Amino acid sequence: MKRRNILITGASSGLGKGMAIEFAKKGCNLALCARRLDRLEELKTELLSINPNCRIVISSLDVNDHNRVFEVFRQFRDELGQLDRVIVNAGMGKGASIGTGYFHANKQTAETNFVAAIAQAEAAMEIFRHQNFGHLVNISSISAVRGFRRAMTVYAATKAALTSLSEGIRIDVMHTPIKVSCIHPGFIRSEINETVEKVPFIVDTDTGCKALVKAIEKEKANSYAPSWPWAWLHWLLRVAPVGVVRQMS
Ligand SMILES: NC(=O)c1ccc[n+]([C@@H]2O[C@H](COP(=O)([O-])OP(=O)(O)OC[C@H]3O[C@@H](n4cnc5c(N)ncnc54)[C@H](OP(=O)(O)O)[C@@H]3O)[C@@H](O)[C@H]2O)c1
């Protein structure tokens, strides 16, 4: 197997958990972190029942504690011997229209989705540069391609920044054995959108995570998952009139 040892942040629910299940089915060793350790312990038991041959290591981590990000990534590398792929997935979607009194929520989303993603990318790339191999995967969003209003304003901006960050890192290490991918999920049911009823083209967690893993394993620079309809729709979204974009949030 090409990438056997995989670290996933934000693995306690939703996409992180779903991707862990898919990679366990493929026989990967997994290093999983999030703040809710009890959820990770349950997931570890579930993964070992799916595939007892996998090595599963877990750690509690708040990605906004940047020093801990470096510590935990290095500890995982030491426990598994090497890291072949790191998936920067931890994220949140709290927020409200700018200027309506929710700076604290918008700031928390900005710090978790972008500043902490820089810390995770730094920690992963330090290890990959030392190993001279590895695959960095940043989980952005389809919302990275346009500006959105209301609760999605800062969220979409963080994802646009993450897509740009991914490209910058990729250019930095082009012509080396280190690969950098940015995945733009469409709408996949998880805790982040559990209270939102009408979401266009939403798929269940299993379907979404299978599509994510398929996209990750292709190791392309940029992917849209599930590929139907997002591999096509993102082009339309980029040129859609603002009136159409306004209807989407
Ligand atoms: N679902 C979608 O439709 C969709 C679409 C596009 C992009 N995404 C992206 O996919 C990623 C995963 O989201 P999801 O849909 O799976 O949502 P989710 O079910 O709410 O999961 C979010 C994960 O991130 C972790 N997390 C949040 N804040 C953290 C922090 N400060 N430190 C460490 N871990 C933290 C959470 O774990 P703890 O609470 O245990 O720490 C949880 O495991 C996010 O980056 C999101 O933006 C999702």
Automatic annotation (TrEMBL):
InterPro entries: NAD(P)-bd_dom_sf, Sc_DH/Rdtase_CS, SDR_fam. Pfam families: adh_short. Coiled coil: none annotated. Keywords: Oxidoreductase. Belongs to the short-chain dehydrogenases/reductases (SDR) family. NCBIfam families: PRK08251.1. This is Short-chain dehydrogenase.
